Amino acid sequence: MVDKSQETTHFGFQTVAKEQKADMVAHVFHSVASKYDVMNDLMSFGIHRLWEAIHD
């Protein structure tokens, strides 16, 4: 029988406990989410906003 507290998985280039991964993914998502639209504006020169307006 496998002890679940010893199970690991990969997160980027790290090996982490499986029960920690969801929290780590959530942290990355929340740290990126606030900058997502700004980066889209810069990388697409604002075209993504036109595309969103057409498809909403």
From TrEMBL:
Superkingdom, natural source: Bacteria
Keyword entries, A-Z: Methyltransferase, S-adenosyl-L-methionine, Transferase, Ubiquinone
One Pfam family it belongs to: Ubie_methyltran
GO biological process, one term: methylation
EC number(s) stated in the UniProt entry for this protein: 2.1.1.-, 2.1.1.163
Keyword Chloroplast applies: no
Principal EC category: transferase
GO molecular function (one): demethylmenaquinone methyltransferase activity
This protein's name: Ubiquinone/menaquinone biosynthesis methyltransferase
